[in-house]
Amino acid sequence: MTSHRANLHPYLNRLTSRSILTENEQQAILDLPGHAEQVRPNRDFVPLGDITDHVALIVAGIVGRFDQSNDGARQITAMHIPGDICNLHSVVQPLATSALQALSVATILRIPHFAIRAAAGRYPAVAEALWRDCTVDAAILAEWIVNVGRRDAKTRVAHLLCELATRLDAGQGADDFTFDLPVTQAQLAEATALTSVHVNRTLQSLRADGLIEWHQRLIRVPRWDALVECAEFDPAYLQTQVRPEQRIRIVRAS
Amino acid sequence: MTSHRANLHPYLNRLTSRSILTENEQQAILDLPGHAEQVRPNRDFVPLGDITDHVALIVAGIVGRFDQSNDGARQITAMHIPGDICNLHSVVQPLATSALQALSVATILRIPHFAIRAAAGRYPAVAEALWRDCTVDAAILAEWIVNVGRRDAKTRVAHLLCELATRLDAGQGADDFTFDLPVTQAQLAEATALTSVHVNRTLQSLRADGLIEWHQRLIRVPRWDALVECAEFDPAYLQTQVRPEQRIRIVRAS
DNA sequence: CGCCCTATTGAGCAACTTCAAGTACTGTGG
DNA sequence: CCACAGTACTTGAAGTTGCTCAATAGGGCG
Predict the structure, then answer these.
(1) What residues of chain B lie within 8 A of the CB of A73, using their CB?
(2) DSSP labels for A1-70?
(3) Residue A239 CA to D30 C1' — how many Å?
(4) Do residues A136 and A81 lie in contact, with contact meaning Cβ atoms separated by under 8 Å?
(5) Alpha-carbon distance A54 to A59, whole Å?
(6) B213-232 pLDDT, tens per residue?
(7) What is the pLDDT of residue B253?
(8) How far apart are CA B169 and CA B161, in angstroms?
(9) For residue B88, which of B55, B52, B65 has the smallest C-alpha distance?
(10) pTM for the complete prediction?
């Protein structure tokens, strides 16, 4: 386990975008040890029911959180992108109630629980920042319930694309942009609770409306505003725009 | 704001069923101040977009967490029962991304954030226990995505009933039991992403199979095992059976 | 008694699924 | 460079679940 500052930096940025951390606390994050690993798609790298002793920080690729109903139908309940820790909750609740699987070849950094717990134990503000990060994941889960439960296929797929584009900061404010989404239509179907056949027709419909272009795994969004409108997308739940003066710190800086 | 030990005790029990807290830390929970209040159904007592300064501990009744898609279709993304704090996440993330509404007349105890933050700041293990409580809510959200996305109407409604019965500890292990669920069919529809018409027909089908009886708001489950099977219900995600030796404490007891 | 809310029933309809086949990519070995 | 295999994508036709619209019945309460 060597230093992984470069890989940890995106995660630190995510934390400090919503939480207030002192220099020492930030160092504690950057000093976390880890073990980088390539994971293949279609193989659980965290199986259901496992009691894990580490978390997975995504360095590259996209990771899905998989649940399933008894008849074998799979549902992706979360999609994680580079810079996410996809099972942060396992630090306080190690029993995996979902499996984790890469959607394409991915690189993860496995960080042992003991290291995170040591940092959180030493710096309560680090624990607080991690807790806050978990609440953002929960807000996304709630939005997915709405997506799967209430929106029709076209709106639903568009909404997922908007969410991912926003989280990836793909457009950076531009109206017309292209981003890479290494995900198959079948996986999109598992995330939206549709069939891959219907996802295919839905994407065709979005293309026919000039809302997206889809070649290989590159998605072009010619008019972001139009896609947002079609998707009924309101990014508030993603909490990406927490202004500095709105940030909270429970713990006194010592 | 007077003492609310009696109302706080159920919540303390919930925390200590999964977390290890010292005598002082437990006292800190029981000493939390609060303001009891009756809330009417069909009125948000926490509106969407609000920046809240308190949490709501449910003393009696059932509370729904409401989200909605732009066309006005409402979705209940969580149902909270007595002993739950229904917006605990607001302690670290005060912007409400969902509204809260009682499903029937309910009694809540409003606990100010400053008091919870003080307890969490003083006792890191309290913060840890609260964080852990949030992860259980998140696991339930993920299961709801599966429920709404992948299960047919009958299984879906049965699953929700199983989850609520389990969380209420309604049967206490018995095979045949009755419990009170003060919820209308229309609200059940908002939680399962069905229409109230279809929920009605689904309940009839469950009744025809002898899986439930439903009179007023009392539900009788004559054969728990049979309902569980119909619902494809596996309670693991609820984390209700965390054995003492499995409980984790990050923070050293001081 | 009358009102309002909740539950129930029926008939027609639509969105999405299922099943089945066919086409286009991508990478690999010869 | 081509042949081949495997995966991903696309298309069509028929089937089903759950929705929409609309009306009726029941129960609690002032």
Answers:
(1) 150
(2) ----HHHHHHHHHHHHTTB---HHHHHHHHT---EEEEE-BTSEEE-TT-B-SEEEEEEES-EEEEEE-T
(3) 48
(4) no
(5) 15
(6) 998 789 999 999 999 999 99
(7) 56
(8) 12
(9) B55
(10) 0.95
| pLDDT for B1 beyond 80 | no
Determine whether B60 is exposed, middle or buried from the number of CB atoms within 10 Å of its CB (0-12, 13-18, 19+): middle
Burial bucket for residue B209 (CB in 10 Å: 0-12, 13-18, 19+):
middle
Domain with CATH 2.60.120.10 in chain A: 2-134
| CATH code 1.10.10.10 region(s) in chain A | 152-231
DSSP state of B177: E
DSSP B182-243: ---HHHHHHHHTS-HHHHHHHHHHHHHTTS-EEETTEEEES-HHHHHHHHT--GGGG-----
Identify the band that residue A2 occupies on the pLDDT scale cut at 50, 70 and 90.
low
Whether residue B115 has pLDDT greater than 60: yes
Helix (H, G, I), strand (E, B) or coil at B106: strand
Q: CA nearest B71 in A: which residue?
A: A232
Find chain A residues with C-beta within 8 A of B91's C-beta: 250
Q: Does B152-231 carry CATH code 1.10.10.10?
A: yes
Question: Tens digit of pLDDT for each residue in B68-98?
Answer: 877 778 999 999 999 999 999 999 999 999 9
3-state SS, residue A183: coil
Q: Which of B141, B241, B15, B247 is nearest to A144 (CA)?
A: B141
CB neighbour burial string for B168-190, b if at least 16 within 10 angstroms, e if fewer: bebbeeeeeeebebbbebebbbb
Tokens representing residue B131 in the block: 């964080």
Q: Quick one: pLDDT band at residue A253, thresholds 50, 70, 90?
A: low
Q: Which two tokens stand for residue A23?
A: 């220099």
Stated in angstroms, how far is B149 CA from C17 C1'? Answer: 14
Q: Which residue is nearest to nucleotide C24 (CA to C1')?
A: A216
Check residue A69 and give its pLDDT: 79
Mark yes or no for CB contact A146/B69 under 8 Å.
yes
Q: Which helix (H) or strand (E) holds A140?
A: helix A124-150
Please name which of B167, B134, B89, B236 lies closest in space to residue A95, comparing C-alpha atoms: B236
Cα separation of B238 and B138, whole Å? 10
Residues 6+ away with beta carbon under 8 Å from A86: A55, A56, A57, A58, A63, A65, A78, A80, A100
Q: Are B33 and B111 in contact (CB under 8 A)?
A: yes
Chain B environment of A49 (Cβ under 8 Å): 236
pLDDT in tens, A135-176: 999 999 999 999 999 999 999 999 999 999 999 999 888 999
DSSP states along A107-135: EEEEEEHHHHHHHHHH-HHHHHHHHHHHH
Write down the architecture of domain A2-134 according to CATH: Sandwich (2.60)
